[in-house]
Amino acid sequence: MGDGGRRAGGVWCAAEQPTPVPELCKPVENYPVPIMIGQRIGSYEVISKLGAGGMGEVYKARDARLNRHVAIKALPDLVASDPERVARFEREAQVLAALNHPHIGAIYGVEVADSGKSRYLILEFIDGESLGGRLARGPLPFDDALTFARQMLDALEAAHEKGIVHRDLKPANVMLTEENQVKILDFGLARVIDSDPTASQSNSPTLTFAATQVGVILGTAAYMSPEQAKGRVADRRSDVWAFGCVFYEMLTGKRVFEREDVSETLAAVLTAEPNWNALPANVPPGIRSLLARCLQRDRKARIPEIGTVRFLLQDALTPSSAPAPPVVAAPPGQLWRLAALVSAVALAGVAVGVAAAWSLKPAPPVAVSRFALTLPEGVTFSGAGRHMLAISPDGTRVVIVAGGRLYLRSLTDLNAKPIQGSEAFGAVNEPVFSPDGQSIAFFSTLDNSLRHIAVAGGAAVTISPSVSATSPLGMTWDETGLVFSSPDQKGISRGSPNGGAPESLVTLKENERAFGPQMLPGGKAVLFTLATGTAADRWDKADIVVQSLKTGERKRLLTGGTDARYLPTGHLVFALGGTLFALAFDAARLELRGGPVPVVEGVRRAPGTTSGAAQYSVSSTGTIVYMPGPSSVSMSQAEIVLVDRKGTAEPLKLAAGPYDVPRISPDGKRIAFGTENDKEAIVWTYDVSGTSQARRLTYDGKNRYPVWSADSRRVTFQSDREGDLGIFWQAADGTGAAERLTKPNPGESHEPESWSPKTNQVLLFNVRKGSDVSLWMLSMPDKKISPFGAVTSSQAPTGAVFSPDGRWVAYTSASSTRTTVYVQPFPATGAKYELVQRGGDVPHEVAWSADGKELFYNPRPGAFEVVSVTTQPSFAFGPAAPVLRPFNLGPPTARRAYDVTPDGKILGVAPSGGALNTSVPMHVVLNWFEELRARVPR
User: Fold this and answer.
1) CA 178 to chain centre
2) Could you tell me what percent of the chain has a pLDDT over 70?
3) Average of pLDDT values for 779-795?
4) Percent of the chain residues topping a pLDDT of 90
5) Which of 156, 502, 701, 926 is the most buried (most CB within 10 A)?
6) What is the topology classification, in CATH, of domain 369-635+923-935?
7) Which fold has domain 638-911?
């Protein structure tokens, strides 16, 4: 039996027969799916059976509404009662619905019948033949194999960009249409990347009805990657392996690992080498090399991305040299003379031919290529509030910030490598290459300095010590030096890479902030983004300006955008939301030409109001690298999420908004959070159940920093409603007027931190005076105020929080040289316990676990950790462990951006359009300038 039909009721029914034969195509006796030919499922009339597999039977049907043929996949009754398999079936529907690509079989809908007992996927009907059926007749011509391979790569790349791994790619799941177009089918085994890797596992090596968790062998044995054959987790590299197997089979007509039974096939996958001699002689060496790199048994050595495979496939087909001259036979004595003559004639002929070709033919178009780069396993981006990546001027290397240090990734290497020496400076950010590409400058939060380090690693050279107490708002490096924006210095400066005090280029007003300064050609003017105020959307409403260094005259180019870059093509590129726009720009006249055109959609932005950074970088040679992110949502918008200890985030039923400092009530039923713009700062409350809308709690003045009372009946906050920055509290249901709790002295402000648990007897609060912060107590009901534990900090809030039993207080202490976490007993006795930190760490944002046995804290940008604590017979810290966190954290100068719920979850704020994911791949576009010129002609 070939691939053209399937067994049904003891007779063969053609899979594609145009006229159904109901009397012949009866359902198989006792088969668990009681579908009859002619039966109607919704608006679909069943015509014939197409096949059966582990995930169900497939039928051809007619859509009565749209008068078209569809394929219906039915989940067998055998597994319909199994919640895991039903969930997998529904996941297949969601996976397919997320994909919209010409080379992926589409899904039209889902039908449920018999009170939910019967479930059906309505799929695109593809009139053609499977690749498996075609290969049963022998290998494909090289050009056909190449065409199908390219289409498969396009489809898989689209799936991977959606976070979807197929995991069961094989010829039987690839259809060839009558127009010789590929359609990849059956994403039923697809695993959504970042799904729970710790869920319950089965270790039964079955090839059909197997769950999708780690530890289960899936797919067909001959196309399984070695990691799947071992029952380990599958990722994008598993699809790279399977593609290599299918491409090899298209070229040879034989499976790369073909044995008599499953066990021998799996053994071959794990131990045998492909027979490279089976490849036809006309297969170019580059293709052979590509296959070998796809079929590396060690997936760390395997090509990591399908996009890279597509790029290398095209590169392998590009001729590297002119054809050699013909060989001419001659007598031995005359061989050297004839060889010289032939060589001279051949070289002359080649020269004339090349000249004629260039004179008669236009230059071939430059191909625009796209692929993705990933970080090494276990390494994640850090410092999302500033730039996290940069590409070298020649476009060959990318530097990234991950784990608080620098990594270098060559576009020709498989993995990023740490730059030795960059780990010694605490959290680093804003990396930029030197004009010659041999050094990288960065900002160190350890001593607030600018430094540069060789790309090969080594000792970092100080450019400017203590340039800013806060990370620069963008930095560039050209022949004139390093140009950067300093938030606390309120201006733009330029420093020499050889050291010395930076010179001031631009001075800003009190309410102004500059981002991303860049010297324009000629060195006479600086381009930058100018934002005003403190509104959550200030960076998306900012101005793109240029300022003359000679006259100080400032010219506004456009309003509504950030992180602008001038490119050597004569274009200005900037970000708005998560989209990059471009305009033609006359750098001599400082004038824009035409209107903005979107050129890249879906670029990651810095979260919230931290900065105007868009995570992209462009080389002088025309290569762009960027981190993908949401494209249409305003970057001031966020969502509040509940996160379990596995890192799984569940958004609350709140519309996206500019949320800040969420706090959970002690009874776990409500949250309080803040929002702020130029006009007002508001405290809100919201029922976690989602049964009602958020309630506005405060109306008068600017109100910030909500803290729940111990009985969950009141919310405490700072307010300027009476002319100073004192502390008030108000009933959480909005009834009654707010009551003042503290009145600061002139020049002071008060900020609430934490109420003692169980009773509203003691409130810990900060007293801020100038740059000094100290921790005080408010005792109720007499409102007596006294200092607590001699706790002081510099500029940063203490973040003090009571332990659940009220016997301990954890807090942050920050100075100009050191930031760390301490714990003191309550009431204070003079004892103080310090969290031991690694070199370069700046622990802050501390919170107790619900049971009081752990402390969560932010050790450094991009990280989140928890440390165990014991209190008997004395207080002691245990070992620290990393915690997954798909939500925002802040610097020491910010208030704690998360809270811990009574049931042990984390309440946090995540960027709207998807929880924060710092392990996303970088997208690379080679020859992007060609695309830019085509979209935005000058």
Assistant:
1) 38
2) 81
3) 91
4) 45
5) 156
6) Neuraminidase (2.120.10)
7) Neuraminidase (2.120.10)
Q: What is the pLDDT of residues 347-362, one digit of tens each?
A: 444 444 444 443 344 4
Q: Is the dihedral of CA 193, 194, 197, 199 positive or negative?
A: negative
Closest CA to 641 of 454, 914, 830, 340: 914
Centre a 10 Å sphere on the Cβ of residue 250 and count the other Cβ atoms it contains.
Answer: 23
In three-state secondary structure terms, 914 is coil
The helix or strand, by DSSP H or E, that contains position 199, with its residue range, turns out to be none
Per the annotation, the verdict on 168 as an active-site residue is: yes
Q: DSSP label at 358?
A: H
Cis (ω within 30 of 0) for the bond into 911? no
Question: ∠97-99-102 over CA atoms, to 5°?
Answer: 120
> For the chain, what is the largest distance between any 2 Cα atoms, rounded to a whole number of angstroms?
118
Q: Is 134-195+204-316 in CATH node 2.30.29.30?
A: no
Least confident of 100-114, 310-324, 519-533: 310-324
Do 386 and 606 contact (CB within 8 A), yes or no? Answer: yes
Which residue type is seen at 532? T
> What is the reported pLDDT for 251?
96
Average pLDDT over residues 499-506: 90
The confidence score (pLDDT) of residue 762 equals 96
Q: Which residue has the higher pLDDT, 17 or 546?
A: 546
CA distance 152 to 249: 14
Q: Is there a common fold for 134-195+204-316 and 638-911?
A: no
3-state DSSP of 577-641: CCEEEEEEEECCCCEEEEEEEEEEECECECCCCCCCCECEEECCCCCEEECECCCCCCCCCEEEE
Q: Where are the domains of the chain?
A: 5-124, 134-195+204-316, 369-635+923-935, 638-911
- 3-class DSSP state for residue 156? helix
- For the stretch 804-832, pLDDT in tens is 999 999 999 987 678 899 999 999 999 99
- The two tokens of residue 84 are 């895991």
701 half-sphere exposure, CB direction, 13 A CA radius: 15
* Secondary structure of 547-572 as H, E, C letters: EECCCCCEEEEEECCEEEEEECCCEE
The SS3 call for residue 674 is: strand
Long-range contacts of 132-136 (CB under 8 A, 24+ apart): 132/3, 132/170, 132/171, 132/172, 132/174, 133/2, 133/3, 133/4, 134/171, 134/176, 135/171, 135/249, 135/250, 135/253, 136/2, 136/3
Choosing from 168, 186, 540, 724, the catalytic residue is: 168
Contact, 93 vs 107, CB < 8 A? Answer: yes
- From residue 334, alpha-carbon distances to 324, 756, 768 in Å are 21, 104, 98
Q: Is the pLDDT of residue 917 over 90?
A: no
Burial of 387 (0-12, 13-18, 19+ CB in 10 A): buried
Q: How far apart are the C-alpha atoms of 440 and 444, rounded to whole Å?
A: 13
The rounded radius of gyration (Å) of the Cα atoms in the chain is 32
> Which one is the CATH code of 5-124: 3.40.50.720, 3.90.380.10, 3.30.200.20, 3.40.50.300?
3.30.200.20
**Which residues have CB under 8 Å from 319's CB, separation 6+?**
none
Provide the 3-class DSSP secondary structure of residue 892: coil
Global pTM?
0.50
Three-state DSSP state, 42 = coil
Copy the structure tokens of residue 832.
Answer: 């103080």
Q: Locate 43 and state its tokens.
A: 């608006």
